[in-house]
Every structure is written in C-alpha cells, then in structure tokens.
C-alpha cells in the first residue's frame, strides 16, 4: 500500500480536529524533526496503520483507567500497546526501505523516557528510605498529638500538602495527609470528604511551581524549555489556585474537635542524614543542569551514590555496635540504638538496592508504555495535527486553558509530554501557563490526578468521584483565578 511523505499537513475540519486533539494528547520529544538531511517521515495519519495505532492506544488507556475494577495492572496494556504500535510503524517503514528512520526515532523516544525514569528512580528511592526511617509516620503522629480542631486540621493538612508536594511526588503527599485525616476523623465522613478534596487541590497546586513537584514541571525542566528558577514565577498563581477553593470550603468544615493521640516518637537513627542528602541531591541535579549542561538525571544518579555510601556507613556503625555488645546487654543496646539483632536484616535495611526494589514499578513501566506509544502517534503525524489546531487555529492562551481542562480526564504527564512534543513557537509566559494549567487542571475531577485516585482507594468511599464532583465549580473558580493572576503578574514574559 502506497503512503505519501509528510511534506504538508492537510487541513482539518472541526470534528476531525477535536478527534486529533484527543488522539494527539500523547507524547515524546522526538528528535527527528530537526535535520533536513534526514528522510521526510511518512504521513500515516490517514493510513490504516495510523487508525489502528490510535485504536490500540485508546483501548490500552481505557484498560489502564479501569485498573481498580479489572484488577489488571495498568502497565500491562500500555506496554503491549507500545509494542504493537511501534511494530506496525516499523513494518511500514521497512516495507518502504526506511527502517533505519523508524529505529532512530524509537531510540529518541526511549532516551527521553530513560532520563525521566532515572530521575524518578532516585527520587522515589530517597522517599522510600525516609519512609523506612519513619519520617512520614513521625509527621503524621505529630499532627495527631496536637489536638487540633477540624477547621484548623483542614488548613494544616492543606498547607502541608501544598509545601510537601513541591519536593515530593503528589501521590506520596496526598496519601500521607489522607492518613492523618482518616486517623482523626474516620467517623466524620463530612469532614473526610471536604478535607480530601482540599488535599488534592493543594497537592496539585503545590507541585505546579517547583521543577521537582510534579511530572509536568519535571518534563518541562528536563526538556530545557523553562529555566529552573523561572518556575517560581508560578508560586503566587499556585497559591491562589489552592486558597480560592479552600477559603470557600472552610465554611463547610465542621467546628468539632477530634480525639487527640499520643506523643510523637523521635526520628529513627539516620533519618535526618537522609533528608540532608536528599536536599544535596536536588542541589546536585540543579548544578549539573545549570552549570555543566548535563541532564538533571545525571545529577540525581550522583545523589544516589550519596545515599549508597551513607547506608554503607550506617550498616558498618551498627555492625560495630552489634559486635561490642553481647549477652544480656545486647537486647538493651539494641533498644537504645535501634540496632537490629540480625545483622543480615540490618544489611538489607541499609542497602540502597532494597529501597530501589520497593519502587512503584507498575507506575514506572506504565509511563514507558504511555510515552513510547505517544512517541509512535507523534511520529505518525497526529501531534502535528493537534498542534495546528491548538496553536494556529486557536489563541495560545485559550489552547493552554483547554489543555488544562483535558488534563482532568487524561493524565497530566501525558498531556504535558504531548505539548512538549508539539513544541509550538510560544513565549516563556505561555510555557509557564500550560505548565500551570496541566498541573492544576487535574484537580477539577477526582480521576484527574494520582493524588485523587490514591485518596479514593485509601478512604474506602468516604471520598469519591461524586463527592469531589460537588466541589468542581469551586475548584474551577480557583483554576480561573490562578490563570488570571499569572497573566497579570507575569505579563512581561508573554
């Protein structure tokens, strides 16, 4: 079957443009568009391979979204879809004598994913190490011990969610704050529902102004589209996005006081060192990117060695303490210094690879499936169609607002990766706008972000899609207000 080189993009009708937008809201940062010496890619947008690839992606994505009901891990359909899509593309290119071109583009997609994977791997390893040393549990118990009222707890959990999500992933932050809410108000579903909505909004808003806070900002930073420090221009718009709905929801929070809890325990040995090394790792990643022009992932991997050597030090210290104590004093020394009696157990707990093994591998492989699949759809030509519709037919401001609304239905990382793949010729202010909208747009619905999905599972019905939907108009006010504040405060960037 003959296919035509992609020398021009055909004009689209409104209906096909909308379909192209949804089909094209998928991803990577392909390197094939730069060099004129490379062969012109084939236009497969109206070829059966293109139609089949879109159908495969949508079917796999639907199965991934139904993970809770089907009990089929979301990575499985997405990995299979990525393989099928690229198999179809490669077979078509090989038949046209252009197999080398499809292989080169696939490797470019793989390289983009590898950088993201390594970055997240190190970040999640540090978070697992902090969890192992009781950092998050200690924070939760501290909050429970203060005897705060529901309204004060509503604001404390919201503000802490906003701040924590700027350095931790939004799912970890939401589950931590959700655990506090459930522990203090399990018998008050009215408070649980409104507090969880507040946590979701705060978590997504807090991650939108920090390069480390969310997958959207991380993608934009790693691509080099926005410099590291410029993300903080979104701080005030992000605060507004959180405060507007939180202020309104405050009046629906009960005025009662929940039962208090015991006193928090001291941090376990090594916890503070891990926190300090995590900060040093972030500084290293920023330094590698800003001063050495190396990808942030390279700096994060350097930071992983900090943790590895620190764990080795902790293990040797504990092994030394173990050899110094014997007989009846061994148990007492173990309690005082928290020294595991079994050295093999100690070695496992202070082995960085033990924490790596505890990563959320299903999520990491799911991102591979999504990013590589969308890389295929981009190579086929659908991202060019979507880009024409969004950033040529529409005003970029309206296009970026629409991107945020779509992110309430489709994973925001997927959305942002699609926009980066389109690489429209827009100003830095517009890039910051789409970073903001894609980050906070997921708050409009419970299924729009990992924070919302995670809390729905954790609260066992106390917080649900329907309870979140009741607050969507209020959240939309915050969404609109944050956009307005960004356009006002950062107008010099447009």
TrEMBL record:
GO terms of biological process kind = sodium ion transport
Membrane-spanning ranges: 49-66, 78-96, 108-127, 162-184, 232-253, 265-288, 294-315, 365-385, 397-419, 431-451, 471-489
One Pfam family in the UniProt entry? CitMHS
Q: Which GO terms describe its cellular component?
A: membrane
Domain Citrate transporter-like intervals: 62-439
Q: Which GO terms describe its molecular function?
A: antiporter activity
Question: What is the top-level taxon of the source organism?
Answer: Bacteria
Location within or outside the cell? Membrane
What InterPro entries does the record tag this protein with?
Cit_transptr-like_dom, NhaD-like
The record describes its membrane topology as: Multi-pass membrane protein
Keywords, in A-Z order: Antiport, Ion transport, Membrane, Sodium, Sodium transport, Transmembrane, Transmembrane helix, Transport
Q: Which family does it belong to?
A: Belongs to the NhaD Na(+)/H(+) (TC 2.A.62) antiporter family.
Protein's recorded name: Na+/H+ antiporter NhaD
């Amino acid at each position: 079957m003959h296919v035509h080189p992609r020398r021009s993009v055909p004009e689209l009708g409104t209906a096909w443009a909308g379909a192209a937008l949804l089909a094209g809201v998928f991803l990577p940062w392909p390197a094939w568009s730069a060099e004129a010496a490379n062969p012109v890619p084939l236009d497969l947008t109206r070829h059966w391979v293109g139609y089949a690839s879109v159908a495969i992606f949508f079917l796999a994505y639907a199965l991934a979204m139904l993970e809770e009901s089907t009990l089929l891990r979301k990575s499985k359909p997405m990995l299979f879809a990525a393989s099928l899509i690229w198999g179809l593309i490669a077979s078509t290119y090989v038949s046209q004598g252009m197999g080398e071109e499809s292989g080169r583009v696939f490797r470019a997609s793989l390289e983009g994913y590898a950088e993201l994977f390594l970055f997240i791997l190190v970040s999640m390893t540090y978070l697992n190490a902090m969890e192992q040393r009781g950092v998050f549990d200690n924070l939760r118990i501290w909050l429970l011990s203060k005897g705060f009222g529901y309204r004060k707890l509503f604001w404390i959990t919201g503000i802490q969610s906003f701040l924590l999500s700027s350095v931790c992933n939004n799912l970890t932050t939401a589950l931590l704050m959700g655990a506090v809410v459930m522990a203090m108000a399990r018998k008050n579903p009215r408070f649980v529902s409104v507090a969880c909505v507040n946590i979701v909004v705060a978590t997504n808003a807090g991650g939108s102004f920090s390069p480390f806070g969310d997958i959207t900002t991380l993608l934009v930073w790693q691509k080099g589209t926005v410099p590291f420090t410029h993300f903080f221009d979104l701080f005030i718009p992000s605060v507004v996005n959180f405060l507007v709905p939180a202020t309104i929801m405050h009046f629906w929070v009960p005025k009662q006081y929940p039962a208090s809890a015991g006193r928090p325990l001291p941090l376990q040995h090594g916890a503070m060192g891990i926190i300090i090394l995590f900060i040093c790792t972030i500084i290293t990643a920023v330094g590698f990117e800003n001063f050495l022009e190396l990808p942030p992932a390279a700096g994060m991997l350097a930071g992983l060695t900090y943790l590895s050597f620190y764990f080795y030090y902790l293990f040797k210290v504990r092994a030394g303490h173990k050899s110094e104590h014997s007989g009846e004093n061994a148990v007492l020394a173990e309690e005082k210094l928290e020294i595991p009696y079994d050295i093999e157990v100690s070695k496992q707990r202070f082995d960085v690879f033990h924490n790596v093994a505890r990563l959320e591998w299903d999520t990491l492989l799911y991102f591979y499936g999504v990013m590589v699949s969308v890389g295929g759809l981009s190579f086929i030509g659908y991202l060019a169609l979507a880009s024409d519709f969004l950033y040529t037919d529409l005003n970029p401001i309206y296009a970026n607002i629409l991107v945020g609304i779509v992110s309430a239905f489709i994973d925001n990382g997927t959305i942002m990766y699609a926009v980066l793949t389109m690489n429209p010729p827009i100003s830095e202010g517009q890039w910051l706008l789409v970073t903001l909208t894609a980050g906070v747009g997921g708050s409009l619905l419970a299924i729009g972000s990992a924070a919302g999905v995670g809390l729905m599972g954790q609260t066992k019905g106390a917080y649900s899609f329907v309870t979140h939907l009741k607050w969507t108009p209020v959240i939309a006010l915050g969404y609109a207000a944050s956009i307005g504040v960004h356009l006002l405060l950062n107008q010099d960037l447009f």
